[in-house]
C-alpha cells in the first residue's frame, strides 16, 4: 500500500466544502470525482501536449478525419487533448471559464469524452457557474499536483478509490446499490485467490478478473491490490460491466487514471448487451443487486433460455422475476474457462433467498441443482447482518470453481461467520457492523484449512438434494341440510344452470330432510337424498349431486372416510402434504419409517406426474438450509429455547412489517389528498379534486369469486395454471402460486381463468385479523373461494385499483366479521359498497409514479422483512425436524446422551 496518498485525498476532500449549501452532501461526488479525473488527465497530457498540438495541426491541414491513432502515438498515451487549455490557463479568464472548460473537455479523445458524458458533467458545469462556484473550484484543483512523475498510477488509484469510498459512505442511502463494504470485498478476494496463491507468485504470471455488475469498480481494485501484494511482477487484467451511467464513469475513469485499458469496462446491461460475450476469465466476483426484478429484460432472457438452450447462458432455468441474483451467477458460470485450461473461480455475495427459495419445480432449485451436480460449489460463508449500507439482512458469499482441488471434490464447506464482527462507533445508514482484519484472517484460515468445527461443516453434494413426494390423507366429510348450506348450493354453477322449476323442486326436496340431523357417511347421505328425490319425482344429473355434496358437506375429522365408486379412499386436498426425503432414500421405506406411524391412513401418491426426469418417484430439488446445518452448534440451546427465540423474532417481524405498512398507507393516502380545490368525496378522505369522481366500488369493477376444483379428481391438479389461495398473497405482484390446476379443471368445472392485471383480494381467513392482502396478477390465473377477483372498468387502471385497496385496507378491516367457526371474513356487500375516489386515468398514472417514488425504500425494507420471515420459517421447520427426530429416537430406544 502506498503510504502517503491520504494527504492528497484529504486535500481533494476539503474542496468539497465549497459546495456546502448549494449541493447536498450526497451530490458532492458529482463534482469532485469528475474534476479529480480531469485534473489527473490535465497533468498526464501536459507531458507531450506540444507534440500533440503540432501533430493535430498537421492532420487538420492534410484533411485527415480519423486523427485518434496518430494523436495517441504523439501523446504516448491512450488519452490526448487538442485544445491549448490547461487548468491553470482556464483560471486566467474567470468570466469565460464555463464555456472554456466545456470546450476543453470536448477536445479530449472520444473515449474520454464518453466518460464525462456518462458523468453528466456538462449539467454540473452550468450548475456551478450559476452558483458562482466554478472558478473557485477549478482554481483549487489547479493547485493540486497530480503529475505522473510525482503521483504514480498506483498512488493515483488509491487516491481516487479513497474518494469513491468516502463519497459512497456519505451518500449511504444509495451506497448499497453500487458499493460493497471494503472488508467484505477483501474477504471475497482472499477466498477467491486462496487455492491459487502459489500459482500467482510465479514470475510473469498473467490472469484476468471480471465483475458483471462492477459498480464503481471496488471489487476489481481490491483484486488487483491482492495480486500486487503477492507478486509485484504479476499482471491481473480487470474487466467489468456496469449499467448505471454515473458509476460506469467512475469505474472507467479509475481504470484510466491507473494507466489501464478503459475499454475493459463495458457500459450497458450484462444480460441483454454482454460486453464480453466471447470471453472467459480466470476469476470472477460480484455483488449483484439483492432482490431486484428482471422484468424489464424478461422477454430477452426467456427467449435465450428457450432458443439457445445449452448454447446460451440460462439453460439451467430462470428464477422468479422479482429476483435476478441467480441470473448473474449463471452469466458468470458461462464465462468459466474449461478445466483443462485451468478452470475458473467465482466469488459472489447474495442475500439468503438464493439458498433455498423455490420448490423442486422452480427455476431457483434447477439452478442450484445444476451448480451442485456439476460439483462447482466449494463453499458458502454466512456473514453478519448490518454489514451493508442499505440493508440489515444477513448475506452469504458463495465460492465456486469448475476445477476443484481433489480435497474439495464432491462436497461443500459451510462456514458460519454470522457472529464475527465488531460494532461501528457510528453507523453508516444500515451498516452498524464491520468485519475486522482479524476476522477476515480467521475466516480465510477456516476456509483454507478445511477442518470441521462449530463454525465449519462439510456436506456431500447429495446432502443438499431431496425428493419431494406427495402424501395424501383420506377425505372425511359430514353432511347437513341447513339454510346457510342451501344458499351455498344456489351459487353452485351446476345447480344454477338448471331451470328455475327444477331448482325449486331440488330445494323443496332437500328442505324436507331433518335439518338437525348430521350424516357422517357420504353414501348414506346420498342414498337418503336419492330416496327423497325419487319420492318427489325429482330427476337431476350427476353434476347436481356433486354440487349438493360440495355445498351441503364439510370436512369433519370424526366422519367416515369418503370413497369413490371403486371403494378407494378419496384424498383431502387440504391435508395433502409434500414431504422432502433425502436423496438416495427409498420413498416407500422412508414413508413406512417416518410418516405412517403418525398417519396410519395416509399413502404416497404415485401418479406419473410426481416422478422426476431421472425416472424415480419424487421430484428432485436442491436447497441449502444454512441455518439448519448450524442449528445444533450450541449444545446449551434446547429446542424449547430456540422455539422461544423464534417466537420473539416472529413477533418483531410482524411489528416491523405493520409499522412499514402503516407508513406506506400514510403516503398513499397523502398522495390521494395532495391537491388544491377539493370537493366532497368519500367520507374517509378530507376531499377530492374537482375533476375527480367518486362512487361505490361495485359500479367500477366486476367482482368474481373463486372455487376449488374437486380434490378427488387427480387430473384437475398439478397442471400449469396458477391457482391462488391466501397462502400465496405475499407480495404486491403475483407471478406464481404453490398449487396449480389443469386445463381439464377449467373445461369440466365452473372455475374460470382470470386474465393478467386482475386484482386479487383475500376475503376469508385468519389473516384478516391483522391485514388485508391485495395483489395484482401478472399471469393468467385462477383463485380459490377465499379470494375475490376484481376486474376494473376501462376508466380505472388495475395498478391504481390495487394501490387504492391497499390504502383503504384499514377501513375494510374494520368491517371484517367472524363466522361461527371463528374464521374472519369480509362480506362481498361491504367490499363492493366502499366508496372510492376516481381520478382521470392520466392522474392515476401520476399518482402511481408518485407513490412508487415515495415508497420505494419502504417496499425494499418490506421485501427484506419478508425474506427474513422466510429465513425464520426455514429455521422453524428445521427445529421441527430436529424435534421429530428426537421423538423418533426416544420411542424407538435409540436416544443417546449425545
Q: Enumerate the strands of the largest sheet in spatial order, edge to edge or round the barrel.
A: 3-2-1-4-5-7-6-8-11
Write down the domain tally.
4
What form results from the Cα inertia axes?
elongated
Number of strands: 31
Mean pLDDT: 86
Here the CATH topology of the largest domain equals Rossmann fold
Biggest sheet record: 9 strands, mixed
CATH class of the largest domain: Alpha Beta
The assigned structural class equals alpha+beta
Amino- and carboxy-terminal Cα gap:
50 Å
Please identify, by name, the CATH architecture of the largest domain: 3-Layer(aba) Sandwich
Strand content: 15-25%
Gyration radius (Cα, Å) is 33 Å
Number of helices: 33
Low-confidence runs of at least 5 consecutive residues: 173-178, 887-893
- Helical percentage: 40-55%
CATH level 4 superfamily of the largest domain: Vaccinia Virus protein VP39
Domain N6 adenine-specific DNA methyltransferase N-terminal: 10-141
Family: Belongs to the type-I restriction system S methylase family.
Organism: Haloferax denitrificans ATCC 35960
Domain DNA methylase adenine-specific: 155-454
Provide a short characterization of the protein structure.
With 898 residues, the chain is α+β, with helices and mostly antiparallel strands.
Amino acid at each position: 500500500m502506498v503510504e502517503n496518498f491520504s494527504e492528497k485525498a484529504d486535500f481533494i476532500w476539503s474542496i468539497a466544502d465549497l459546495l456546502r449549501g448549494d449541493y447536498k452532501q450526497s451530490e458532492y461526488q458529482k463534482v469532485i470525482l469528475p474534476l479529480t479525473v480531469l485534473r489527473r488527465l490535465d497533468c498526464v497530457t501536459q507531458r507531450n501536449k506540444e507534440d500533440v498540438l503540432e501533430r493535430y495541426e498537421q492532420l487538420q491541414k492534410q484533411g485527415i478525419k480519423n486523427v485518434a491513432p496518430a494523436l495517441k502515438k504523439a501523446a504516448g498515451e491512450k488519452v490526448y487533448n487538442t485544445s491549448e487549455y490547461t487548468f491553470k490557463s482556464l483560471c486566467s479568464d474567470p468570466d469565460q471559464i464555463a464555456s472554456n472548460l466545456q470546450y476543453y473537455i470536448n477536445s479530449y479523445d472520444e473515449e474520454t469524452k464518453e466518460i464525462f458524458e456518462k458523468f453528466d458533467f456538462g449539467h454540473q458545469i452550468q450548475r456551478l457557474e450559476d452558483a458562482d462556484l466554478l472558478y473557485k473550484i477549478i482554481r483549487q484543483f489547479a493547485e493540486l499536483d497530480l503529475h505522473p512523475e510525482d503521483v504514480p498510477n498506483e498512488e493515483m488509484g488509491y487516491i481516487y478509490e479513497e474518494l469513491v469510498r468516502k463519497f459512497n459512505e456519505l451518500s449511504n442511502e444509495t451506497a448499497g446499490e453500487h458499493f460493497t463494504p471494503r472488508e467484505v470485498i477483501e474477504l471475497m478476494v482472499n477466498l477467491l485467490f486462496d487455492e491459487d496463491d502459489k500459482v500467482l507468485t510465479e514470475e510473469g504470471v498473467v490472469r484476468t478478473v471480471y465483475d458483471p455488475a462492477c459498480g464503481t469498480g471496488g471489487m476489481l481494485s481490491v483484486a488487483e491490490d491482492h495480486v500486487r501484494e503477492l507478486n509485484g511482477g504479476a499482471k491481473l487484467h480487470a474487466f467489468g460491466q456496469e449499467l448505471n451511467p454515473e458509476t460506469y464513469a467512475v469505474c472507467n475513469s479509475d481504470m484510466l487514471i491507473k494507466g489501464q485499458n478503459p475499454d475493459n469496462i463495458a457500459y450497458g446491461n450484462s444480460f441483454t448487451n454482454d460486453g464480453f460475450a466471447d470471453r472467459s476469465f480466470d476469476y470472477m466476483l460480484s455483488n449483484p443487486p439483492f432482490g431486484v426484478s428482471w422484468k424489464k429484460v424478461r422477454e430477452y432472457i426467456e427467449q435465450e433460455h428457450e432458443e439457445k438452450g445449452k448454447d446460451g447462458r440460462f439453460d439451467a432455468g430462470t428464477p422468479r422475476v422479482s429476483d435476478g441474483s441467480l441470473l448473474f451467477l449463471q452469466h458468470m458460470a458461462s464465462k468459466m474457462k474449461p478445466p483443462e485450461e485451468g478452470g475458473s473461480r467465482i466469488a459472489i455475495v447474495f442475500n439468503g433467498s438464493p439458498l433455498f427459495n423455490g420448490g423442486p419445480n422452480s427455476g431457483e432449485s434447477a439452478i442450484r441443482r445444476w451448480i451442485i451436480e456439476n460439483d462447482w460449489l466449494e463453499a458458502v460463508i454466512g456473514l453478519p447482518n448490518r454489514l451493508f449500507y442499505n440493508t440489515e439482512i444477513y448475506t452469504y458469499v458463495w465460492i465456486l470453481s469448475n476445477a476443484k482441488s481433489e480435497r474439495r471434490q464432491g462436497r461443500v464447506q459451510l462456514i458460519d461467520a454470522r457472529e464475527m464482527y465488531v460494532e461501528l462507533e457510528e453507523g453508516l445508514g444500515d451498516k452498524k457492523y464491520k468485519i475486522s482484519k482479524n476476522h477476515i484472517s480467521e475466516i480465510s484460515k477456516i476456509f483454507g484449512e478445511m477442518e470441521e468445527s462449530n463454525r465449519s461443516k462439510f456436506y456431500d453434494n447429495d446432502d443438499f438434494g431431496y425428493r419431494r413426494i406427495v402424501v395424501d390423507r383420506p377425505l372425511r366429510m359430514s353432511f347437513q341440510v341447513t339454510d346457510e348450506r342451501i344458499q351455498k348450493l344456489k351459487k353452485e354453477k351446476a345447480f344454477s344452470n338448471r331451470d328455475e322449476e327444477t331448482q325449486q323442486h331440488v330445494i323443496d326436496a332437500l328442505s324436507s330432510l331433518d335439518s338437525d340431523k348430521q350424516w357422517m357417511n357420504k353414501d348414506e347421505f346420498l342414498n337418503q337424498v336419492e330416496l327423497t328425490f325419487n319420492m318427489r319425482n325429482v330427476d337431476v344429473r350427476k353434476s347436481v349431486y356433486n354440487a349438493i355434496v360440495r355445498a351441503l358437506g364439510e370436512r369433519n375429522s370424526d366422519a367416515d372416510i369418503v370413497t369413490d365408486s371403486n371403494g378407494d379412499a378419496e384424498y383431502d386436498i387440504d391435508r395433502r402434504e409434500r414431504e422432502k426425503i433425502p436423496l438416495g432414500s427409498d420413498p416407500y421405506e422412508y414413508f413406512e419409517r417416518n410418516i405412517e406411524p403418525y398417519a396410519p391412513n395416509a399413502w404416497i401418491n404415485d401418479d406419473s406426474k410426481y416422478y422426476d426426469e431421472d425416472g424415480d418417484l419424487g421430484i428432485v430439488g436442491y436447497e441449502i438450509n444454512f441455518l439448519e446445518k448450524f442449528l445444533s452448534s450450541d449444545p446449551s440451546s434446547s429446542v424449547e429455547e430456540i422455539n422461544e427465540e423464534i417466537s420473539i423474532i416472529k413477533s418483531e417481524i410482524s411489528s416491523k412489517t405493520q409499522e412499514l405498512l402503516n407508513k406506506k398507507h400514510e403516503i398513499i393516502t397523502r398522495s390521494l389528498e395532495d391537491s388544491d380545490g377539493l370537493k366532497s368525496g368519500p367520507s374517509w378522505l378530507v376531499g377530492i379534486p374537482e375533476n375527480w369522481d367518486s362512487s361505490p366500488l361495485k359500479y367500477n369493477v366486476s367482482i368474481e369469486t373463486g372455487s376449488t376444483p374437486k380434490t378427488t379428481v387427480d387430473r384437475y391438479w398439478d397442471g400449469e395454471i396458477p391457482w391462488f389461495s391466501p397462502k400465496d398473497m405475499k407480495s404486491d405482484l403475483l407471478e406464481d402460486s404453490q398449487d396449480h390446476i389443469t386445463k381439464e379443471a377449467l373445461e369440466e368445472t365452473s372455475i374460470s381463468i382470470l386474465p393478467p392485471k386482475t386484482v386479487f383480494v383475500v376475503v376469508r381467513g385468519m389473516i384478516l385479523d391483522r391485514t388485508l392482502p391485495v395483489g395484482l396478477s401478472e399471469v393468467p390465473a385462477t383463485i380459490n373461494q377465499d379470494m375475490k377477483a376484481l376486474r376494473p372498468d376501462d376508466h380505472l387502471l388495475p395498478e391504481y385499483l390495487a394501490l387504492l385497496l391497499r390504502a383503504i385496507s384499514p377501513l375494510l378491516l374494520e368491517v371484517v366479521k367472524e363466522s361461527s367457526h371463528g374464521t374472519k371474513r369480509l362480506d362481498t356487500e361491504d367490499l363492493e359498497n366502499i366508496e372510492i375516489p376516481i381520478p382521470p386515468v392520466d392522474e392515476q398514472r401520476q399518482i402511481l409514479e408518485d407513490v412508487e417514488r415515495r415508497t420505494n425504500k419502504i417496499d425494499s425494507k418490506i421485501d427484506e422483512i419478508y425474506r427474513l420471515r422466510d429465513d425464520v420459517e426455514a429455521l422453524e421447520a428445521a427445529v421441527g425436524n430436529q424435534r421429530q427426530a428426537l421423538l423418533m429416537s426416544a420411542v424407538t430406544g435409540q436416544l443417546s446422551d449425545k
